[in-house]
């Protein structure tokens, strides 16, 4: 659906300036008023039926073999989440080599059940209470689509019982396709949206990378050697129908929300030219937006290499700087932020939104128990330990994440992006954005 058609389907809430206290921030994304401590986790949930099969060495079913059938309907070419060593049936080290037991046999790469994962959550709650604050939120990142998980509502209710905000990353397929919603949950897509909206602790982190139908389809699919499309067919139309359902639900109040966030990530050469308009379109409709270039995990590393080859590293960085600066200038114009606030908080890695402080206040727990700094990188520096082998409190106490918050209180407001700084972002990126932003607002 074109931008013009979406404008007709979803009318703007704000014309020139925001009002009613609306901020570009979704509940649970940024930890407000943080003191050093553990407040949030990124988490993975795999359906128990698949977990039990994977953990049975007599069974050929693995998470890896089920990834594109039972866990995800998409085939995104730049999927940051798809780390083979996390989902293979046998353990591998960070170099991809099989690890063996004392008898020289390959070791099972055991996947956490729902009960196991909730025990980790309870450890996090206990850590937070001992630190003198609440444990506040969880973001579900994978593998695949949590909305495809038959345990979805058990998971939501488990977090609700614990008073935890659960934000779900989704590309919206089940929220726009009656066929898929019926297949996995026995209800229409609109009924599924309404049921999710009825849980006050649920937020949606909804992917939207382009207004162009053909590009939207290409960004969530791949091609076989024979040129056959692999992934969900007709995705763009399904996504747009899902947006209609979401905007017409109790996720919104008076055309505004802090429970839905549009995720334009990764920003790539194919969509950077329209990313400013994507940002403006959704904030005008009372919807938080976060945007950022590619992660350096999973297939995201390949995306970083590809874009530098496509348009050249310098041109890509210049385009990013200009995009970020224009968005901050727009924020001031629309009253989303003040100039003083931008200079106090600093430029965020997720442009124009409330700054990310996840690294200073949280951890990422993978399906096999590995604990990472965050979803943005996967290497020796950023993979800490396995929670099946080391208690979470010990991992947290020894982590660079906790040290970051203790060492610099500003990192508890805006930790920028330790996963991408100096890599996906050039070393002087934030300073260049601030300089260009200053030039833009001085021209008015």
Description:
The chain contains 19 helices and 11 strands. It is an alpha/beta fold. The strands form 2 sheets. A 9-stranded mixed sheet has the order 8-7-4-3-2-1-9-10-11. Strands 5-6 form a two-stranded antiparallel sheet. Helix 12 runs parallel beside helix 14 (313-334). The two termini are 34 Å apart.
Keywords:
two-stranded antiparallel sheet, 444 residues, 19 helices, globular, alpha/beta, nine-stranded mixed beta sheet
Largest sheet geometry? 9 strands, mixed
Structural class: alpha/beta
General form: globular
Give the mean pLDDT: 90
Strand content: 5-15%
- Which percent bin holds the helix content? 40-55%
Instruction: Please write the string of helix (H) and strand (E) elements.
Output: HEHHHHEHEHHHEHEEHEHEHHHHEEEHHH
Write the layout of secondary structure elements.
Elements: H1 3-9, E1 40-44, H2 48-54, H3 63-71, H4 84-87, H5 114-131, E2 137-142, H6 152-161, E3 165-170, H7 173-176, H8 178-185, H9 189-197, E4 202-207, H10 213-219, E5 222-223, E6 229-230, H11 235-247, E7 260-264, H12 275-283, E8 289-291, H13 300-311, H14 313-334, H15 339-345, H16 358-361, E9 362-365, E10 370-372, E11 383-386, H17 392-398, H18 400-407, H19 429-442
Parallel strand pairs: 1-2, 1-9, 2-3, 3-4, 4-7, 7-8
Antiparallel strand pairs: 5-6, 9-10, 10-11
């Amino acid at each position: 659906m074109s931008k013009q058609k979406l404008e007709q389907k979803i009318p703007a809430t704000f014309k020139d300036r925001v009002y009613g206290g609306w901020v570009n921030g979704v509940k649970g994304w940024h930890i407000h008023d943080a003191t050093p401590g553990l407040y949030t986790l990124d988490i993975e949930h795999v359906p128990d039926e698949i977990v039990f099969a994977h953990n049975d060495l007599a069974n050929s079913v693995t998470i890896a073999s089920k990834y594109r059938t039972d866990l995800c309907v998409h085939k995104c070419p730049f999927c940051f989440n798809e780390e083979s060593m996390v989902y293979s049936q046998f353990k591998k080290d960070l170099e991809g080599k099989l690890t063996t037991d004392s008898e020289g046999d390959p070791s099972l790469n055991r996947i956490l059940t729902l009960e196991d994962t909730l025990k980790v959550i309870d450890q996090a709650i206990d850590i937070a209470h001992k630190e003198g604050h609440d444990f506040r939120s969880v973001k579900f990142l994978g593998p695949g689509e949590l909305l495809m998980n038959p345990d979805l509502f058990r998971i939501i209710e488990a977090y609700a019982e614990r008073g935890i905000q659960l934000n779900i990353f989704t590309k919206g397929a089940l929220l726009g396709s009656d066929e898929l919603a019926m297949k996995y949950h026995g209800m229409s897509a609109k009924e599924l949206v309404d049921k999710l909206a009825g849980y006050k602790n649920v937020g949606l982190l909804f992917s939207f990378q382009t207004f162009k139908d053909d590009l939207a389809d290409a960004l969530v699919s791949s091609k076989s050697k024979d040129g056959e499309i692999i992934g969900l067919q007709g995705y763009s139309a399904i996504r747009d129908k899902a947006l209609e359902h979401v905007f017409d639900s109790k996720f919104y109040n008076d055309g505004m929300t802090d429970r839905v966030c549009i995720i334009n990530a990764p920003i790539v050469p194919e969509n950077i030219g329209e990313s400013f308009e994507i940002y403006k379109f959704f904030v005008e409709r009372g919807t938080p937006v976060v945007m950022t270039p590619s992660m350096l995990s999973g297939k995201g590393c390949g995306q970083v290499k590809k874009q530098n080859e496509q348009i050249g590293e310098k041109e890509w960085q210049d385009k990013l700087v200009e995009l970020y600066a224009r968005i901050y200038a727009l924020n001031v114009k629309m009253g989303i932020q003040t100039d003083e606030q931008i200079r106090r908080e600093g430029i965020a890695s997720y442009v124009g939104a409330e700054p990310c402080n996840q690294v200073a206040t949280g951890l990422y727990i993978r399906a096999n128990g590995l604990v990472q700094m965050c979803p943005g990188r996967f290497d020796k520096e950023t993979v800490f330990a396995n929670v099946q082998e080391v208690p979470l409190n010990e991992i947290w106490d020894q982590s660079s994440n906790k040290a970051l918050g203790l060492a610099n209180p500003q990192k508890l407001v805006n930790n920028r992006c330790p996963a991408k700084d100096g890599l996906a972002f050039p070393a002087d990126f934030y300073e260049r954005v601030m300089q260009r932003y200053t030039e833009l607002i001085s021209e008015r």
